[in-house]
Amino acid sequence: MRRYRFLLSAQWVILTLVSIALIPTMIRLGIWQGHRYDERTARNNLVSSALHAKPVPVEQLSAPGHAVTRTEKYRTVTATGTFDTAKEVVVRRRTNSDDEVGYHVLTPLVLADGKVVLVNRGWIPANGAQTAFPKIPAPPAGRTTITGRLMADETTAASGIKNVKGLPDRQIMLINSTEEAHRLGAQVLGGYVEQTGPQTDSPEQISDPGSEDAPLNYAYMIQWWLFAAGVPVGWWFLVRREIRDREEAAAETAPEEPEPAAV
Predict the structure, then answer these.
(1) Tell me, what's the pLDDT at 210?
(2) Which residue has the higher pLDDT, 74 or 215?
(3) Cα distance between the two ends of the chain
(4) CB atoms inside a 10 Å sphere around CB 97
(5) For residue 176, what pLDDT is reported?
(6) φ and ψ at residue 177, rounded to 5 degrees
(7) Distance (Å, rounded) from C-alpha 161 to C-alpha 159?
(8) Residue 82 belongs to what H/E stretch?
(9) Number of CB atoms found within 10 A of residue 258's CB
(10) Using CA atoms, how far apart are residues 244 and 240, in angstroms rounded to an integer?
């Protein structure tokens, strides 16, 4: 056991304690990545199921004051009514697929019963300072039917976007049906619709939500557990190398035996 006495030195005690602490830490990180994998897989499955579900009238899923749920979000819906461009607004600081900054165009669609559904018709460029109301391509006139994805009201907590006050006229930061109901003085269905049809070139329609990279989380989970398994192996390798180095140093410093005298 004398050859292992060096393990009681301060340097090796610290190294051993750090190694012991790393093992459960890496195991917990692997478990956390496993939970992330499960969450992202569930989210991807939910989005895919919603996008491929049969389209339904928006009134079947939403009503004034309704909060769009996780299972309703991204559902394909239809709405028939008349666009009210006089009360159209733009949503600031939104990007397109090329990460260009511009606006989303939010136009109220007045349904046959007088209720309103908010329609995000897509993206337009900012064209300089975002101080004046931009020129917006007109939607179809008269009674029209659109299709799109049902979305939940935007909030600062969920999006990280601060709801700035004192903006230029007809410009907003967040799409929120409750706030728009106050502005419009109408009954507004909860949430809003991201228009996907009829297809238009401008505004530039918003692409489908992408899948979150769940397999990457699975790979990270395995990676952390491999690291945890490698810690004791690495510690033992360092111990064996230290023993070898000490034995070689001792052999080099040992006094040589004198040669026997000649007879």
Answers:
(1) 63
(2) 74
(3) 43
(4) 9
(5) 96
(6) -65, -30
(7) 5
(8) strand 76-83
(9) 6
(10) 6
